[in-house]
Design goal:
two-stranded antiparallel sheet; alpha/beta; globular; single chain; 362 residues; 9-stranded mixed beta sheet
């Protein structure tokens, strides 16, 4: 069985840190907490779980803090989490099995990262991240903001999932770090340019965000997934700026990078739907449902390949008076969101039409 050091960086996480540590305390062999300047009860709470608490002077660099946390590990493998992450009971069991069975030849293990959930607890967005790495490989974190762990060697894709359950979010922190670096004259890497544009979008600075997304795309150095996301983000910005022609044109730019992804298909479908071009809209929503990929290393919003196209197809077939097809797609949408009030209302609507038609034909 491998041994595991948990390594975390924290600051003012008194509301969530115990929840996180409770979910892994019986699995890991060592807990290392690096505090970057807490003024609340974070360290007091952490002391109930470990005495390996280290202080790190914050220098506006997440990678530096995480690399310092990894330096404290003494076990064979390192697991990293954020304070607002947890492992569910099911994933705790999976991680324990992984710990018992993982080959020592493996250098890094990826896990699913569940980012958001619907009202029924179903995962609506996710990606993959390398969470468990061999200590002896001395893998390094890169990037002051939106940092990533650079891994290589023998990689393993596990079925363990980490769930992200934040109670609050400091929406000024990341953009402030980026703008401080820009003001100091430091050039942003293509990756940082993309993430800075994301921060600008989140702060409703849409024109400036478009400028930085375009700057990122112009480098031709972006990962294909980020290129596609950048195009879709630009389209969103144009949507906020009430420029529909530019919005659909930028959506179509995603097709220059890869086959149509479900989100692109749904966006094009909606464009035709708004134009009352029902057959064209149906084509694109069906194409969204036909897409199959195991790729989850980039952000994935499951709605675009599950309930959303089915719901839109229900509306479109109703427009064409193809009630049976509309009812079918609405029922399929309900399998993903069984308590959704719109879909339940649609269900009653289709039921009434079908019953009335049968009565008239009898």
């Amino acid at each position: 069985m491998i041994t595991i050091s948990l390594c975390m960086i924290v600051k003012n996480e008194e509301s969530v840190i115990a929840r996180c540590l409770e979910s892994v305390k019986d699995i890991v062999d060592e807990i290392n907490i690096v505090d970057t300047g807490s003024t609340d009860k974070t360290k007091e709470i952490v002391s109930n779980y470990t005495d390996r608490i280290f202080n790190f002077t914050w220098i506006d660099d997440f990678a530096a803090a995480r690399n310092f946390s990894f330096q404290q590990a003494s076990k064979k493998y390192i697991l990293w989490l954020d304070a607002d992450d947890i492992l569910t009971t099911q994933d705790q069991e999976k991680l324990l099995i992984l710990k018992q069975t993982l080959s020592r030849e493996v250098d890094a293990v990826s896990m699913k990262y569940h980012l958001s959930f619907d009202e029924d607890g179903n995962v609506t967005s996710l990606l993959r991240r390398y969470r468990l790495v061999k200590n002896s490989r001395n893998f390094q974190w890169m990037g002051a903001v939106h940092e990533y762990l650079e891994v290589s060697g023998t990689l393993y894709e596990s079925d363990v999932a980490v769930s992200h359950l934040p109670l609050h979010h400091d929406n000024q922190r990341n953009i402030a770090i980026y703008e401080k670096r820009i003001k100091s004259g430091r050039k942003l890497s293509p990756r940082d340019t993309f993430y800075y544009a994301n921060e600008l979008t989140d702060h409703q600075q849409y024109k400036k965000a478009i400028k930085y997304y375009e700057r990122f795309l112009a480098t031709n150095l972006g990962w294909i997934e980020d290129n596609i996301r950048a195009c879709l983000k630009i389209a969103d910005c144009y949507g906020h700026l009430k420029q529909p022609k530019e919005q659909i044109a930028t959506t179509l730019r995603t097709l220059t990078y890869d086959v149509p992804r479900p989100e692109t298909c749904c966006r094009i479908g909606y464009y035709f739907m708004q134009a009352q071009k029902n057959a064209e809209a149906i084509y694109w929503y069906k194409l969204a449902l036909a897409y199959h990929s195991d790729l989850t290393s980039s952000f994935v919003d499951t709605s675009f390949s599950t309930w959303l196209p089915h719901l839109q197809l229900a509306v479109l077939y109703d427009r064409l008076q193809l009630v049976d097809k509309g009812a079918y797609h609405n029922e399929t949408a309900l399998t993903f969101k069984p308590t959704d009030p719109i879909m339940l209302k649609n269900k009653q609507y289709f039921h009434n039409i079908i019953q009335t038609t049968r009565h008239e034909n009898s």
